[in-house]
Amino acid sequence: MTDLKQKNLFTGRLSMPLLAVLCTLLWGSAFPFVKLGYAAFGIGGDASVYTKLLFAGLRFGFAGVVVLAVGSAAARRPLFFKKSEAGPILLMALVQTVLQYIFFYVGLSNTSGTLGSILTSTSAFFAVLGAPLFFRSDKLTGAGVAGCAVGFLGVLLAAGGGDLAFRLTGEGFMVLSAAANAGSSLLARKYAQGISPMALTGWGLALGGGALAAAGLAGGGRFPQVTGGGIAVLAYLILLSAVAFSLWTTLLKYNPAGRVCIFNFLIPIFGTLLSILVLGEEALQLKYLGALALVCAGIWLVNRKKA
Questions:
Q1: Which range of residues forms the domain containing residue 58?
Q2: 116: nearest Cα among 82, 89, 155, 79
Q3: Is residue 5 part of a domain?
Q4: Which residues does the UniProt record annotate as the domain EamA (predicted)?
Q5: How many domains does the chain have?
Q6: Whole-prediction pTM value?
């Protein structure tokens, strides 16, 4: 596919939203499937952090290998990176994979799949606040600030209900994961202008996942059991990561960061629905419905001019 055809595909009036929705659907499905993976490998809530890091490292490391293999086949050459590109790729690996998923995997094991998906949506608000630091064309407006405030009210409601209880290693880590996610999106928007999105994504996932797996093994992380079902779940998580991150990075190359990142509000909706279907979690409580309404209202405030 030529660069012009790729640009038309990823900026099209219909194709761009559909691709962004596909990414958020895949990421939303990760919440219940990570929990299924934990159960299949015997990783309980009391499992060591190193075991969870090993699980995350295998997922993202192999996802990076898949992206690099597909990208190399498409380009008909190995997707190596230049010396000048090493810094951006290492930074992407650190923020997008290592930091984001240390917080994600530990946090998700200490909260529900439904609540975790809602908290992850805060990455959209972090992206709105952080975009002016990266791109001069993105201005922080009163509507943007108001939208972020309303969105965070929704997050607080979902996290604590009436008493606003908030556990650092659960809900707190999910918010930190969301902040790292937003940072990686802004970095991808910046670096994808000069580096192939497939190379940026593939090496970021492979190096970051390798670091997580190495840390898990070094700390004594082991799977209590290995089953065919667990391997199948892990394979699905590897595939969804490879597809979603590759598409997302390419979307960020051709579109403003705010326009792409705002689709993250769909993650809690997909995550909630899939958690109900797959895990049978009790999700339809008034506090979750109110939180989703506030999050969506915040998104509308941020984007009402575009709409």
A1: 15-116+182-286
A2: 155
A3: no
A4: 17-158, 169-303
A5: 1
A6: 0.84
pLDDT digits (tens, 9 = 90+) for 216-267: 999 999 999 999 999 999 999 999 999 999 999 999 998 877 778 878 877 8
CA distance linking residue 195 with residue 199, whole number of Å: 7
What is the distance between the alpha carbons of residues 2 and 6, in angstroms, rounded to a whole number? 6
Structure-token pair, residue 131: 């975009």
- The number of residues making up the chain comes to 307
Q: What is the pLDDT of residues 27-45, one digit of tens each?
A: 889 888 988 999 999 988 6
Q: Is residue 282 part of a domain?
A: yes
Amino acid at 59: R
Residue 156 lies in a domain: no
Copy the structure tokens of residue 248: 């997302």
**Cβ pair 43, 234 in contact under 8 A:** no
Cβ burial of 13 (10 Å; 0-12, 13-18, 19+) is exposed
CA distance 306 to 184: 24
